[in-house]
Amino acid sequence: xxxxxxxxxxxxxxxxxxxxxxxxxxxxxxxxxxxxxxxxxxxxxxxxxxxxxxxxxxxxxxxxxxxxxxxxxxxxxxxxxxxxxxxxxxxxxxxxxxxxxxxxxxxxxxxxxxxxxxxxxxxxxxxxxxxxxxxxxxxxxxxxxxxxxxxxxxxxxxxxxxxxxxxxxxxxxxxxxxxxxxxxxxxxxxxxxxxxxxxx
Length: 200
Fold this sequence. Notes:
- There is one protein chain.
- The chain is mainly alpha-helical.
- The protein contains seven helices and no strands.
- The longest helix is centred in the middle third of the chain and has 28 residues.
């Protein structure tokens, strides 16, 4: 059991390191204005918006990822590769964030940004399904599993809608992305009961 936990902790530590690097890359993309006046900050509002949304997105990813790892009984090769796929999709966020900032929330970058969210959500669904499949039923009840699946599917549909909407109205697409993210602020699925979550 100790060896299983150590392997899960190693998977979590690697994921933490990758996410930390992703956040660092995003921070390095923030460029201060050359002027020393407050008015020089105004043209940077797309940068601020895209960075804030992306930072919130990555924070939510980390919280939910950390939450799911607590239920891992054993780390399978499939779980490892699904985790790599998830992290790969997340690693594209800084690129899209920088493009949105430079293009002033233009249609193409926001569409790509939303598309990346679709990929991240797909990978997360696979990761979540792999964890829930092996989780002890005494720790995660049937209702919790059902609500988690519904939330994953619901947010995936919202991200797909955001991708399509962004082609015509990029700002609305960004709003839809934020709305989907709100559903993941708490790692426990809404209306569900995760049992034994007080254990580590």
